[in-house]
Specification:
This protein has about 450 residues and is of the alpha+beta class. The protein has a domain of about 210 residues. Helices cover about 45% and strands about 20% of the residues. The strands form four sheets. Strands 5, 6, 9, 10, 11 and 12 form a six-stranded mixed β-sheet that branches. β13 and β14 form a beta hairpin. The longest helix has about 35 residues. The two termini are about 25 Å apart. The C terminus is likely disordered.
Length: about 450
Amino acid sequence: MKDIISTLTMKELEQITYRALQESFSQVMAETLRELDEAIASGRDKKRFYLKDKRTLKFESVFGQVELKRNYYQDKETGKYVYLLDQYLAFDGTKGMSPVVQDLAIELAVTGVSYRQAGKAMEKLLGYPVISHEGIRQQLLNTEVIPEESVPLEQEVLFVEVDGLYTKSQKKGRKGREVKIASIHQGWERNGKRAKLVEKRHFIHEGNLPFWEEFEQYLMTTYHYEPTKHHLVINGDGAKWITSCRDYFRHNAIFVIDRFHVARDVQRIFREHPRYRSVRKKLAAYDSEGFMAELNSAVGTLENEKKEERLEELIAQLSQYPEALGDYRKKLEKKGIDTTGFRPMGSAEGTMSVFARRLKNGRSWSKEGLDKFIDVMVALKDNLEIKTLHGILEQTQELKQEPKAEKPPKHFVEKLKDSSAEATRNNLGYLKQAIGKPITAALKGLRGI
């Protein structure tokens, strides 16, 4: 027994078992498809569908490559040639890839680092090269996001976080593009010790209209939003295209300067200054007048030319909208709106960091590739339906955060278990060793998986 154990490591055992099960389940998949194909052939309208011959179906799956012969028909009504098996399963066998592999590739490409890394991750996970990075890109370019129906509004206020993200262009000599992004939610709800944003959605400015005009159209399409009834609380930095929301929405919107950027500037300017503590206190207390007074009184006391210049720039910027430093909740209360449960704004930076990790870091984009990628990325975040070459993309439960799908019929599961047991019987070399040896006994248990 010691001799047997010494020739096998845990890593080798796991690899052998995994590869054997992959091969076994590929056989099970092929046999199941053959049985379905024959059942379809027996029950088809034989006057309409003429059986011409059998042709090879070969595709990559999470188990490895699956190959079989399936029936090829001529539809006498249309004159076209079809695979009824593919039609019944909502699957295009000519693409050479299973829907699960396709969905996994797209998801890894969007949520991961790059197309190339997604391809490598799938190879490491499945044990063989499934799809190239260019193949993944083409799969993503052939997707279509299906718009959702309007979302009802539970209250009078919508919260908006806005920021811009600069991306590089693939074409030489052409300037990059600032992607303008808004995340919208309906407030906060407790999720254990943390607060969760309610009905969060993302808006990407891609049209020719000014940002806020296109954004308002998005609100009316996505939500039951009425410009004369609902109020917006808009958080962002001091970019002109962001602060122009004050003129566009007027009394129906409250602009809040992003406190992350202000706090960061204060730290960089005053970090070793004796007034640093008092400046931070005024900012944290939403004391806009006191905060601006502290900034103005600090002019000329920094003993650093660059910091003095940055301080003057900060004062000039905030002087345009000092009210944006105040507490938006008090302004809503003056309008008669209950602000119970409302929290400070400031998730824009977190939202942008998620997009930046995938869109920046030295990457350059074509306009078509960038638009499509962002559309799919937003769809995954907002749980929108994505139409692919193989149907509707099924997100992993971790991303979708929905209850698990219903289990398949019991008789179908039992049939697959029986088939897998039969398929694995002669695929594991260790099962053929002498009876009574520990490894043999252990591996024999795999036959019932």
